[in-house]
């Protein structure tokens, strides 16, 4: 797995590189701004990019914009975005570009090596990974008249874990229920969120986007 890191905090940038190399991964380049990051993507053609949300010069959304541009230049590039805070609008901007191989994690998760590495491998494998804290805040802040209000407490639990990227078996293990029960809950979630079967749409990702878009429009 070839990785490029874009992070303007030198300590975190070098710490990430050391961590990933210690795990046997190939960090081919690091960057402290969007321009050098995109140049590194063009030069090294990495499999995964780890990108900070807030980067120079304005420290607003340069990282998100660079991540979107990197995926335009290199279709299929897996992107794991890191942020110090839950920033729903920025998460929405990235995920609405479509496709898998996307993750949005809080920087504090890096210190929890097992969780961080699991998210990285999930994204590199074509899946999605959204920080549990992001999911929790989306669930608690959603307007009461939204489609979310239709979900039962158990369905909300299932969706929260689904949004983190867990599969049915892992959700069943977390909630101490059967795989069949999880499958039933997920069918109900899709129905209540009005997500009909569509070969062109990953309904799991669509359910997460439903929350992100709802928060961004508040």
* Fraction of residues in helix: 40-55%
Rounded mean pLDDT score: 84
At CATH level 2, the architecture of the largest domain is: 3-Layer(aba) Sandwich
Distance between the termini: 38 Å
Sheet/helix structural class: alpha/beta
Principal-axis shape: globular
Assign the CATH topology of the largest domain: Rossmann fold
Indicate the CATH class of the largest domain.
Alpha Beta
Rg for CA atoms:
17 Å
Number of strands: 6
Q: How much β-strand is present in the residues? A: 5-15%
- SSE topology string: EHEHEHEHEHEHHHHH
Summed up, the domain count is 2
Organism: Catenuloplanes atrovinosus
Modified residues (4-aspartylphosphate): 52
GO molecular function: DNA binding
Domain HTH luxR-type: 144-215
Blueprint of the fold:
Blueprint: E1 2-6, H1 10-22, E2 26-31, H2 34-44, E3 48-52, H3 62-73, E4 78-83, H4 88-95, E5 102-106, H5 113-124, E6 128-130, H6 132-141, H7 153-163, H8 168-175, H9 179-192, H10 203-216
Helix pairs in contact: 2-3, 3-4, 4-10, 6-7, 6-10, 7-9, 8-9
